[in-house]
Structures
1.
Amino acid sequence: MRTTSSSRRFAVISSAVVASLVLAACGGDDDGDDDGDGAEGTAGGSLVFGASADPIILDGALFSDGESARPTYQIFEGLVGTEEGGTEIVPVLAESWEPSEDGLEWTFNLRQGVTFHDGTDFNAEAVCFNFERWYNFEGVMQSPAVTYYWNTVMGGFSDGAIPSLYAGCEATDESTAVISLTRPSSAFISALQMPSFRIASPTALEEGNADAVGGTEESPAFEGTFGYENPAGTGPFRFESWERGSNLTLVRYEDYWGEPAQLDEIIFTVIPDGPARRQALEAGDIDGYDLVDPADAEALEGAGFQIMLRPAFNVGYVGFQQNDPPFENINIRKAIAHAINKENLIQTNYPEGTEIATQFMPPELFGWADDVTVYDYDPEEAQRLIAESGVTDLTLEFWYPTDVSRPYMPNPQANWELITADLEAVGFTVTPMTAPWNPDYLDAQSTGGTPMFLLGWTGDFGDPDNFIGTFFQTVNPQFGNFENPEIFAKLDEAEAETDPDRRTELYQEANRLIADFVPGVPYVHNQPAVAFAEGISGYVPGPLNNESFAAVTVE
Amino acid sequence: MLRFVVRRLLQLGPILLGLSLLLFVWLRALPGGPAAALLGERATPEAVARIEELYGLDQPWYVQYWKFLVNAVRLDFGNSSKTNRPVVEEMLRTFPATIELGTAALIFAIGIGVPLGYFAARRYGRWLDNLSVSGSLLGVAVPVFFLAYILKYVFAVRLGWLPTGGRQDPRMDAEHPTGFYVLDGIVTANPAASLDAIVHLILPAIALGAIPLAIIVRITRASVLDVVHEDYVRTAEAKGLYERTITRRHVLRNALLPVVTVIGLTAGLLFSGAILTETVFAWDGVGRFVYEAIGNRDYAVLQGFILMIAILYVLVNLAVDVSYGLIDPRVRVQ
């Protein structure tokens, strides 16, 4: 497809430029084709993938955005990973692992014969080097804007200003690393698949001065070259070049320990505008892109492009400030849950394949319970609950954000309109409130300034702790600082439990308690789409956006 | 002339100082801050407070402004809160892209606009004149982003003649020592890379150059119409001079003065037009970068880039003033 497009272009231009230039250009084009075709359409070739933004840095510890994560997943590997297309944790650089009985020590038995892209051997020392590096970050490196996931999963750093979950790492022999925690946490193992916990070559980190920060305290700057020029991991692709703001090129790592990558190279090219990404795919300038607008998916599929749905790993919900009337009254919360016609909302505003949510976490995740209290669409029951509540002022200040499209709410205003119509049909009076998503809306909702609001969450790692643990394990201003010791305690217990079956039960119990308490109304799990040109195969979208391109082939 | 240039350059100081103060106050008056912009849904009040403390954003604005001024004098505009890279480095990356695009747009606008305006005036009231007048009206009226989408849809998506965006084919083996891709191809003796860069320039340059083209056509036409009825042109014709000589020496030279003024003003406007064009054509330039920085509340980038755009704007207009002297000797005398 790409070659055809290029040829047509050069044919047209050739009439307008001097002959010598054209001849030279044709030579260049031929060179490009030689690079791209490889062996007979299966192994080899190159793939151009449209990214919505340039990566910030290719050092997993120092970013939290998806476009930095995508190439990082190809270059680096963690001790653990996830099954293809799912969230279940599987071995990668660790062949097996085991927690101690008290859940405070995790012993990892490491894969042998693995080398980093710079030739350094992978071993237990390398694992501990990485963990100790993250734990000893200082100054601005501790900022949640830089090391968000260490902050989220581990808490504090070695300076002890904030307690840390991480206690230490010991390389007991070449292939055994023991990681100690300050308290039992099973979410820890699920989090290790994230880019923030992927293992980099200690040699490359040191040579690239990865932790050097310059500038001033007010305005720090990364000064090392590791994350820009020499990010060396153990993954199936290694770094080749990065034209910042335009193209990032990765090439196959020939000494990969597992099944080598099929492609010779992947090029991530930056196209921030959504419609521009679609047009680039249609014109053959790129071979695929993520974050396909739901409105484009059907048209692209009709035109012969492949549309793949990513398993839902998000939740859209209506939240309440439970300190404010009338939401302090549980019957009002239940009445709202019954008043919303979720099925109609999803059929009207979401693409095919979207699921109705009953809980604040997707069904793909362990701990999801199939027997929680479900609030079906029932306007009469809603009216009965309103009458029973005794509340007379039925005015709801209901907020939605503008200037934003999220996977769980592609068009917030459209959702708001349908929900408002449902609420007014059962007797509520809705006061419309709106603000630009960034930063007014986010500021308002995170500080409790939005009595009733639309929001959602996309998971970072495959653990219920990252969904209901984030929302409900402690007092949260977003939900009106409600205190429900039973839910808090259940989530604490579930996080600490090391037995997988018991953890699943505990999270199921927590989901039942949450559904009964109605801190908000979850209504949707959307499936974002990925688009590819014809002839691209082997790509399996996963819920965590962490898929490898190693098995991808081009025809 | 030299004294004139020096005086204009000295005026730049107070202009930039005032602009930087306005910018500083305006940016901080915007609701929200970089912390909330960076974290999105994950912006808890604790995380926001911690980021503001680490970046010194919790200090009074005048303290922050003083530090900014001291650093700016040393050409250190701080670092982007989004990428944690020096603003100067981001400038070196993005300004060549926009200057290359702007230059191509101006070449397109001047190369077509001046001859078209001239011939429209010389054929006043005939079909070429009517076509150029209505065409230029359309050029001014059509929004840049709409024109950009239409051009892209027709010539890139439907016909496949030109690329949909970017500055170069991602698979092109090319080096970029200067950041000006067309020039880079020449410097590195890689004509295929130069040609590919030119091919990528065509659609965005047309989209960005459409409004300047329309303005230049209209101004040139009006100015030529004024000049051709001057006594000295009639005298030249009566003397029996060749038409070519009359055009070059008497008509164009006098008619171009207002055109050059407009070109100077238009060159500055190209930066604002570039925001839309660069977004539509995935062009990694100043416009796109500043647009994203506004969303990210990236104070350092916005301050540094807007000041640099202001400097360029002043310098371009200074160059225009200087060029008056070359076109019209009377200006030199004055």
2.
Amino acid sequence: MDVLINLVLFTMMVATAIAILRMRRLFAVVMLAGVFSLLSALLFVTLDAVDVAFTEAAVGAGISTVLMLGTMALTSREEKLPRKSSLLPLMVVTVTGAVLVYGTLDMPDFGSADSPAQTHVAAQYLERTPKDTGVPNVVTAILASYRGYDTFGEVVVVFTAAVGVLMLVGGLARRKDPEEEAD
Amino acid sequence: MTLEFILGHMNYWLFIILMMTGFYIVVSRGNFVKKIVGLNIFQVSVFMFYISIGKVTGGTAPIYPIDLNVDPDVVYSNPLPHVLILTAIVVGVATTALGLALIVRIREEYGSIEEEDILEIEQEMQRAENTEHGSAMGGSA
Amino acid sequence: MRHHLILRVITKLLVPPIVLFALYVQFHGDYSPGGGFQAGVILAAGLILFGIVYGLRKVKQVFPPWLVHKLAALGVLIYGGTGVVSLLLGSAFLDYSVLASYPKDGQHYGIIAVEVGVGVTVAAVMVAIYYAFAARPPRISDEDW
């Protein structure tokens, strides 16, 4: 039953990605990107990652869509027809995919409880969190307390992105050419 | 190549297919907004790959009951990939915002957001500079 | 957007629950899925919705751009400030156990303080980026979409 739900969601996501690839109207592409984010949030829930699903739904379907629509209002509505052939990108993508699949042949099975990812640090976090912090949400406890430095770095990265965007787009659009105004 | 091996690794391969679709959009299409959308698809499928490493069959979300009576029979999924991916999602939206701001400025400078048009404009500017340089040095272009 | 009556009425009804939900997610991040990032993004989404439907000028009256920029820096300051307070109380940077008389209470206070810092910064950053994009004159008129 789990496998069936995962397969259905994955099929819808692949269909959305192929539609994004083929469509030329940018408005439809941006909306489909929002749909893709929501479908991936559903998939995160079936993978037991509820915090991540929450964040992905809010960020991907909310903020990203608004920013891309704002960019579209300032640039253009349609994509030009591609002129060059797509054989070389297809070959590059196939080779990369084959190498990645070769890399996953050694990995442990999906959902196994004795894989290296489950046994070392994670088991200790799950055990020590009620005793050290008394916070029921283990993800928040790790994010804010055990790995607080990383979260600090992330907040500074978000702030830096705001500074960068404000420096690029913050002032009003300046006139095109000073020579055009002189005559 | 038993059925069990295929079923156990199928999720990795499915997410690699999604990753390659996003990668193909980035590499083959010339419109910058579409490239950013393709990059987002690639990013989200990498996140799904990473979180599927931490899933335990029969497990549940790593949140204890509110009174902290931990039932020793319940199996919890690994919380550590969730934390790393939370950070990665927010950093991803920050870089997407920066990329979109760059696209707006490129449109103002070059008048188009297609890769082919911008390459043509750059080549013409380069040629104009070369002929200027050549005539300044005394040769005939 | 003056002629979209349904949108204006529904937005007026929806924005207060959105802000309330953002505050709920912020402070219940310890007990259920949630926390600073999600709350900041939800709050920003509510404000952006108000700005899209009612116009940029009205939302700038509620949250002027200078306030939003200063709030973005204030969140980072709260986070770093919690770490420095632990330094001043004699322990390591970002060690919350010394913030109260019992280590568990100290952890609670520290986690709530840093999550507030994160939520404030994320909300302010998203709204500031939206202001920057929406303030430029658009190249596509409203009928051409």
